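=== Structure Prediction Worksheet ===
Name of assembly: unnamed complex
Input type: mixed (protein and possibly other molecules)
Chain count: two
Listed entries:
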Amino acid sequence: MSTRLLVGGILVLLVVMGVFVWYLAGRESGKVGEVAQTPTIIAGGRQIVLLGSGATFIYPQLDAWAKEFSKRYSNVRIEYNPTGSGTGQRQFIEKVVDFAGSDPPLSKKNWEQARGDPRGVIQLPVVIGAVVMVYNIPGLEGRLKLNGEVIALIYLGEIEYWDDPRIKALNPELKLPHERIIAVHRSDSSGTTHVFTLFLYKASKGKWPKELVEKAIEWPVDKTGRGLGGKGNQGVTDIVRRTAYSIGYVEYSYAILAGLPWALVENAAGRFVDATPETLAKAAEAAYPLLPQSLEDDFNEAWENMVYPPGEDSYPITSFSFLIFYKVYPRDKAEAIRKFIEWINTEGQNYIVQGYIPIPEIVREYNLRAINIISEG
Amino acid sequence: MPNWRSLKSNVFIVLVVILALIAIAPVFHIIIYITLRGLPVILEAGIEFFISTPAAVIAEKPGGIAPAIVGTLFMTTMATIIAVPIAVLAATFSAEYPNHIITKAVRATSRSLLEVATILVGMLVFALIVLPLGRFTGLAGAIALAIVMIPYVYTYTELALLSVPKTYIEAGYSIGLKKAQVIYLVTLRIARRGVMRGVTIGVAKAMGETAPLLFTAFGARNVIFGGPLEPMDAIPLMIFQFIQTGFENWNKLAWGGAFVLLVLYLTLFIISRRIVREVRV
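=== Predicted Assembly ===
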C-alpha cells in the first residue's frame, strides 16, 4: 500500500525534523554559557527581540554589532534585514519593526508623519558612508585624479575618451589611453546614487542639472551607448572589474573588498583627496556643525549640506547613514534600545567592520543624547 | 550512392543529439556551477554549516545557515499542509462539475494566480496578516507560500483527474459505490501519479521562492528557530541578502545555501519519482 508508505514517510520526516529543531534549540541555549564575557541580563531577564529593517549599506556593520551586543546582554536579540532604505522607512511608519536603518534620513513627508505619531521619532547618524570612483584602466600607472565637473561630463556622455584634454588637465603626469570610457551606474533605486548625483550637482559648476538628483535617474550617458547599469554596489563593482576602461561609483567598503583602485577627488577646498578613514572622519567632523540641534528634528537639510562638505582634508563624496528609533517603547524594549544605542556609540566603536569608518567623538556624544529621550510607554 | 541516404540520416541524428544537449546544457551548467562553488564551502565548514547561525562578517569562520534550513523546512511543510487539501479538493470539484459556475471562477483565479508576480502575494499577506498582527511571522510566510503553491497543485491535479478513463469511474458506480467513494477509491487513486507531480512541483516552487517571504517571514538569522509566531529565515531569502554584500564569509554561506537548496530539489524529485513508480494503475 503505497499511500500508507507515503503517509508514513511524511510522518517520519516530520518527527525527524522536530527532533532536529528541538536539538538545535537546546544546543543554542546551551551555547550562551560558552561566551567569554560574563553576560549581563537586563529588563528582568525576559527574552527581548528587536527587529530592524532598511538600508543594505549598514547591514554588515549592524549585524556585527547585534551579535557582539547579544554576547554582553544575553537576553536581547537584534535582527536586522537589508530591505532597502525606502522599505525600512515605510515599515517604521507602519510600526512593524522596532527601528529602521536608512542611508538618507527620513524624507520630509515620512518624518512629519512619524513626528505626529504618539510614539515619536529620533534619528541617529551612526555610520559614515563614502562613495568612491572605482576605475579599470589596464596598464595605467599612478592614481587618477578627478573633479566633480569631469565626473559629471563623463556621466552626461560629453567626455568620450580617457585622453580627453579635460581629464589630461587634471592628470598631467599620467599616460591616459585613447579608449572610450564606459560609465557604470546603479540600475536599482539607491541611496548611493542619491549621494553621488547630489555631489555632482553641487560640485560640477552647474553642469549637472538639479532634476537629475534622485535615487534612480535616466542616465544621459546611456543614450550614447557608453553607459552600463549594475544591481547593487556588488553589481557595479563586478562590472567595473570585468570591463576594461570603465569607471563606476560604489560605496567605499565595496571598493576595498574588491581591491579596485579609486580616484582622488577634488574637494570643496580645491584639493585632490584620497578616500581613507582619516579623510572620511575629517569630512564627518566638518559636517558635524551642520547637524540639527536635536535628534528629534528633520535631518534632510543637514544631510544635503553634508555632501561635499567644507574642510581642507575632507573627502568630498561623504554622507551619514542613520538609525531611526521611536521615542516611546514598551517597558522592556525601551531599556534594551537605550542600552544598544549607548553600546554602539561607546564600546561598539571597537567592532568596526572592514571598510566602515568609526564616527568621530563629537558625533558619538551627539548620539548619546538619545538615551535621555527614549522613554517607556 | 546507396550510402547517401544513411549518411543524411546519421547527420540528422547527430544534429538532433547536439541540439538536445545544447537545450539541456544550462541545467547541467547550473548544477555543476553551484556544486563547484557550494560544496567546498560545506566541506570546509563541516557539520557547523548545518547547526550554526551565520557568523558576523568580521568573524574568522562563516558559521552556518541553520536558521535558513530550519525556516525553509518549516515553512514549506506548513505551506504544503495548508495548500494541498485546498488545491486537491478544489480540483476534485472542478473535475466532477467542469461547467459549474464555481469551477469557472476557480479556474480563472488559479490561472491568474499563476501569472501574478509572487511579490504581490507577499504584499497581500503583509496587508492581511502582518499589518493587523503588527509583526512578521514564519506563519505568514507559510501562508504566502501556500498561496503560491495552490495554483500549481490545482492545475496538475485537475488535469490528472480529467484524464482518468470514464470506464473505471462507471465500473465504480456499477458496483454500487457512492459518488464520494468513487472519487476517493477510484479517481484519485488512479490519478495519484498526476497529483503527486503537482504536489512535487508546488513544493519545489515554494521552496525556491524569495519574493513572497520578504514582507511576511522577513528573516531572522541570529536564532535557529524562534517559534512560528516570530520572524523566520529561509534559504532563498538568505542567499538573496547575503550575495548582495561584498563580504566573502556571507558570499560563501550563500553559495553553500544554493547547494543545499539544489540537493533538496533533487531529493524531492527523486523521492516523488520513486513513489510514482510504485503506483500500479
